Amino acid sequence: METAPTETLLRHPRHPYTQALLASVPCLRSPRRMPDEPTLPGEAADPHFPPPGCRFHPRCPVGPRRLPERTLCSTAAPGQTPVEHDELHRVACHFPVPNSRLR
Ligand code: SF4
């Protein structure tokens, strides 16, 4: 869903799933959440019967579940698109999270 040099990916993730994965990493010094609190709602899609469009759309925190006007997410699979003209940083998302919304 997202590719980039390691430093870029860890410091500036733009795909909502990448952000959720990084948010699920436990922090031993300052626990950010209870151990059984899910990072994302719902369950992973059945790989044998994936949903149409973006396979992540039923769980995406910035997809049509929360923003119904983003119908593109549930109808068209996103391709790997460079983020802000950076050919090394590519995201499979119709609406990559802007940098300003990150940590
Ligand atoms: S394409 Fe839509 S549903 Fe998929 S990750 Fe991006 S915003 Fe979320």
From TrEMBL:
Keywords: ATP-binding, Cell membrane, Membrane, Nucleotide-binding, Transport. InterPro entries: ABC_Ni/Peptide_Import (IPR050388), Oligopep_ABC_C (IPR013563), P-loop_NTPase (IPR027417). Residues 28-53 are annotated as: Disordered. It is found in: Membrane. Residues 1-62 form the Oligopeptide/dipeptide ABC transporter C-terminal domain. The keyword Ribosomal protein does not apply. Belongs to the ABC transporter superfamily. This is Oligopeptide/dipeptide ABC transporter C-terminal domain-containing protein. Gene3D superfamilies: P-loop containing nucleotide triphosphate hydrolases (3.40.50.300). Transmembrane segments: none annotated.
